Amino acid sequence: MATTTTPTTPTRTFVEGRYVPAGPWAARKIEDQVDHLKGSFRPGETREERTLFDAHGDVADRATARAILTAAIGPRVVFHRLVLSPGSRAGVVRLIDLRTWTRLLLMDLGHALGQRLVWVAAVHRNTDDPHVHVLLAGAAERTRWPNQGKVVGVELRRVHYVPGGFIRQRGDLRAAEIRALNGDGTAA
Predict the structure, then answer these.
(1) When comparing pLDDT for 8 and 185, which is higher?
(2) Is residue 186 part of a domain?
(3) pTM for the whole thing?
(4) Looking at residue 131, what is its pLDDT?
(5) What is the pLDDT of residue 164?
(6) Upstream peptide bond of 146 is cis (omega within 30 degrees of 0)
(7) Confidence check: pLDDT of 53 > 90
(8) Which one of 5, 56, 118, 147 is CB 3.0 to 4.6 Å from 137, fit for a cystine?
(9) What's the number of domains the chain is made of?
(10) DSSP string, the chain
């Protein structure tokens, strides 16, 4: 499993990425990671806070999440596992809806890649910095010509994670937009 991590700074989006290469054990890896999304709870954290969700709404249960991801196993990558947080500055995470932020950020990523991304996520509040675990399927449908409608591999590169990389820049922008909509004038 390969890992790329950006250094954490107090006011910036944090992203950590790993991927699982394709192999005969793909379905088992998906099962393990979906179970991890639901994970262990911190005192004060409720089961409802660990509801699985995707681009369209709540995902009914673990079996549905597994089916969504299994249907989109890529030719070289089973899935990417992302850990996202809009920043660790005191209060920032409480001011925005992490589900909305995640949906907007992954919509932006899909648009940039020219792909309709398939993913499942859960918000975790089991650390001092609430964050989102995302399982991004290894295959997606192209949304741009000339290959529109063709299923292709989702290939995230180091440029998506590094400081100043796409996910980090868009994450900062989307967090600022949501804070502004909530009436908080805090600068990013």
Answers:
(1) 185
(2) no
(3) 0.78
(4) 87
(5) 56
(6) yes
(7) yes
(8) 118
(9) 1
(10) -EEEEPPP-TTS-EEEEEEEE--TTHHHHHHHHHHHHH-PPPTT--GGGG--B-SSSB---HHHHHHHHHTT--SSEEEEEEEEES--STTHHHHS-HHHHHHHHHHHHHHHHTEE--EEEEEE-SSSS-EEEEEEESEEEE-STTSTT-EEE----GGGTSTT-HHHHHHHHHHHHHHHHTT-----
What would the mean pLDDT of 87-96 be, rounded to a whole number?
Answer: 60
At 137-157, the pLDDT tens digits run: 888 787 776 666 777 777 666
188: in domain: no
Q: Domain holding 129: CATH number?
A: 3.30.930
Phi/psi-derived region of residue 114, left when phi > 0, alpha when psi is between -120 and 50, beta in every other case: left
